[in-house]
Every structure is written in C-alpha cells, then in structure tokens.
Design brief:
The complex is a heterodimer of chains A (107) and B (119).
Chain A lengths: L3 E4 L2 E4 L5 E7 L7 E6 L6 E5 L3 E2 L7 E6 L2 E6 L8 E7 L6 E2 L3 E5 L1
Parallel strand pairs in A: 2-11
Antiparallel strand pairs in A: 1-3, 3-8, 4-5, 4-9, 5-6, 7-8, 9-10, 9-11
Chain B lengths: L2 E5 L2 E3 L5 E8 L8 E6 L5 E7 L6 E3 L7 E6 L4 E6 L8 E9 L2 E7 L3 E5 L2
Parallel strand pairs in B: 2-11
Antiparallel strand pairs in B: 1-3, 3-8, 4-5, 4-9, 5-6, 7-8, 9-10, 9-11
C-alpha cells in the first residue's frame, strides 16, 4: 500500500499568516491527490482534487501544488474559520490512503 | 443538493455483526462510485471499502477484507456495508462518501454512524 505522511502534525499560526502543509507519498502517485478539511465533530469537507484543482465554493485562499511524491496545501491568509484538521488522500491505486492529518490551531 | 444519510450503527459485542446503510439523494446514484471511510476515536481517516458505479467492482482495505461486504441497491439509492466478525479495533464513526466524477476522491460525505464494539 502507498503510505502518506503529512507534516507537521500540528501547527499554530496567527490570523493572516501564510500556512503550508506538506504531504509525501511513499511512491509516485502522479497528481492523484486530494485534500480535505475536518472541523471537530463534523464530517470531512472536500477542498482540492488532482493535487491543485480547487473544488467549487472553496475559498481562493486555499491552494494545492505538487506531483509525484511531494505535495503541499497552502492557506494564503489564515482565517479563524480555518481551525481544523487537514488530510491528504491518494487515489492512484485501488487502495486509497489518507495522511495522518495536520491540526491547524489559531494563536 | 447531494445528501448522504447513514444509519445502522450501534453497540455490538466482539464477533457480532451489523449492516450499515447510506441513503443517497440529489444525484444520479448509479453513475457514481461510493465508499465507506471510518474514523476511530481521536484518530485519522481510514478508507474501508469502495464500490464502483459502473460494473459494481468492489475494493477493500486489508484490515477488513473477508469480514466486511460492500453492496449497493440502485433501485433504492442505497449503499450498504455488512460488517461481520467485529473487533474492538473496528470501533469508529463510519462515513459514507460519494466519488467525485471519474476521480476516486470523495466530494460529499454523510454525517456518519457510530459503531462501538465492546463486551
């Protein structure tokens, strides 16, 4: 199975900061990567697919990049509503896997 | 509006069984793959199983293969997960999720149903 490793596990930033989360795959997955946001007690929300395509309705401060084995999710200007845990997910093979999550806290 | 509504969770003893259901609306059901993703208490997301919309091919995580069975009833717009031989480590919230077009990522999620395995 393809392993997905996110870093950092937790990050604390101030409102307005630029925030970057990294996701690394144990083997090349092309651009078959998605990002999700999960707020406490809620179901995950779909943010980005194919590594860099923003889902309709998702604020433009969110962006994704990367290909192969290294990917990033960037929040250009952190907002209080962005308090959540973020997960990457690979869908290159018929055994889908998620990263362990990155918890974003507001300072 | 796409809606996914899970049901069927509960408290079950180790070795027991449950059938989880996910009632879907707001999209052409048989055109899309559907999946189950679970989340153990305080842990991350774990993909469990997927069934395609076209030929109803099925896929399972190694951790549940041979114990769980995914199926769908296109006439009822409902997805199922039969979970057998349950173990304590199967305790989790089980989410139903819809695939995004031809991509095998998940654009809509249900609210989840809790499965607790305990004696």
């Amino acid at each position: 199975d393809i392993q997905m490793t996110q870093s950092p596990s937790t990050l604390s930033a101030s409102v307005g900061d630029r925030v970057t989360i990294t996701c690394r795959a144990s083997q090349s997955i092309g651009s078959w990567l998605a990002w999700y946001q999960q707020k406490p007690g809620k179901a995950p929300k779909f943010l980005i697919y194919k590594a860099s395509s923003l889902e309709s309705g998702v604020p433009s401060r969110f962006s994704g990049s990367g290909s192969g084995t290294e990917f990033t999710l960037t929040i250009s200007s952190l907002q209080p509503d962005d308090l959540a845990t973020y997960y990457c997910q690979q869908y290159n093979s018929y055994s889908w896997t998620f990263g362990q999550g990155t918890k974003v806290e507001i300072k | 509006e796409v809606q996914l509504l899970e049901s069927g969770g509960g408290l079950v003893q180790p070795g027991g069984s449950l059938r989880l259901s996910c009632a879907a609306s707001g999209f052409t059901f048989n055109n899309y793959g559907l999946s189950w993703v679970r989340q153990a208490p305080g842990k991350g997301l774990e993909w469990v199983s997927t069934i395609s919309g076209s030929d109803e091919s099925t896929f399972y995580a190694d951790s549940v293969k041979g114990r769980f069975t995914i199926s769908r009833d296109n006439s009822k717009n409902t997805l199922y997960l039969q979970v057998n031989s349950l173990r304590a480590e199967d305790t989790a919230v089980y989410y139903c999720a819809k695939s995004y077009s031809s991509n095998w990522c998940f654009d809509h999620w249900g609210q989840g149903t809790q499965v607790t395995v305990s004696s």
